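Quick note —
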Amino acid sequence: MKPVVIFRHAPSEGPGYFASTLERKAIPWTLVALDEGRAVPRSARACSGLVLMGGPMSANDALPWIAPVLALIADAVRQDVPVLGHCLGGQLMARAFGGTVQAAPAKEIGWGEVRASENAVAREWLGPVRAFEAFHWHGEAFSIPPGGTRVLENAHCANQAFALGRHFGMQCHVEMTGDMVRDWLRGGAGEIAAASGSPAVQDPAEIERDLERRIDALHAVADRIYDRWIEGLSRG
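Predicted structure written out below.
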């Protein structure tokens, strides 16, 4: 089986629980560390799936790797290779599919409920899950691209996830581990303080409260999303 290729855009925003899921299922994967200057492949032919993680930059930034990544996502769609995006990754997917990325109505940092949208596609991806507490860290959000269907939403961000066939893009984070949350809090204390006026930004103590229980509950939902996405991997 060809490997799942995971793109990392920042050292602190690795694949987390998603990598653990692949390893538990004995699915091969490789990491392309764009933050270390690795080149973006020109074709998706060598991978069974394409996964994009988060990052502090904007999907609209004029960074040298953004145009090649958008082209690679488009190539993956042409070759029927499923794409999965987390936060920035979901925004890049939305752009590649013809959507837009813009400032969100409110910055979200910390834990917050998201709801499953009332449609058949959301039920296919989430089963009986109607709402759950997701992790957030974003100031921008994507539109639902042409042909896509909203899967998750909440009061602060109407588009928390979309599906387009076998492709799934998220604004929220389901890949988090306890260590990742603590690492982000150490590196993002200034950002939290500067955004404390947002109704969707929590203080660090609240973010860390009951952390392991929250992470376990998050992983239960991540399992459903990841299992559904993995079903679509190219087996050639």
